[in-house]
Design goal:
Blueprint lengths: L6 H21 L9 H14 L3 E2 L17 E5 L2 E3 L13 E10 L2 E10 L5 H19 L7 H14 L3 E2 L5 E3 L6 E5 L16 E4 L2 E3 L5 E3 L6 E3 L5 E3 L2 E4 L6 E2 L3
Helix pairs in contact: 1-2, 3-4
Length: 253
Amino acid sequence: MSLIKSEKEIEFMRESNRIVAGALKYIKSFVKPGITTKELDTEIENYILSNDGKPAFKGYGGTRKRSGFPASACISINEEVVHGIPSSRKLQTGDIVSIDVGVLKNGYYGDSAYTYAVDEINTRKKNLLKITEESLYKGIAKATAGNSINDIAVAIQTYVEGSGYGVVRDLVGHGIGKNLHEEPAVPNFYSTGSNFKLRAGMTIAIEPMVNYGTYDVKTLSDGWTIVTRDGEPSAHFEHTILITDNEAEILTI
């Protein structure tokens, strides 16, 4: 499979990613104390279906040890890093909640995540969200043809760790296109195996996951939800982008 997308493929990806971006904008007004994460998931699923898309995460990733993901969005609260399963749990004032959305349309995928504040949050959570989102754009700024994956990774890691936070090591960004997860892997930290050179026409998802404490995480017994090992809060921001010879094009905006 070629990692370089044709103009037609890029147009298909723009369409699926527009739905993703629209879903994350749409759901913002629902992120309030008292709503359940299942209710948020239902709103997102209905939005995707109403735009002739297919929820990309629903049923994804089944193995012998776990069933496929049971919902349309990954919704992760406070110390939950990613892959939180929507449930009857209600949001409370002071929570932060990461919502990760994927869409399949015309055979191509879109993927993005945003971490929302639930009503008023404390200063440390505000700063965590600020640094995490800014680190995403630091990485995107390095995502140009001729640079390597490590250029993205080092920009993110340097900014996050220089601000006193932990960059998750167990999870990384990824290529995206006909498959939700394609090569290359896109870590948010320096790796000797990440010298892959970027080329115009590639599409990748950059997604820093940043913990208030250490970078250590663990997986809960449901087989999906990943949480910080020290119980400190975590934030997650993600964009799917198109690599060009100049500035990257953000598809999920």
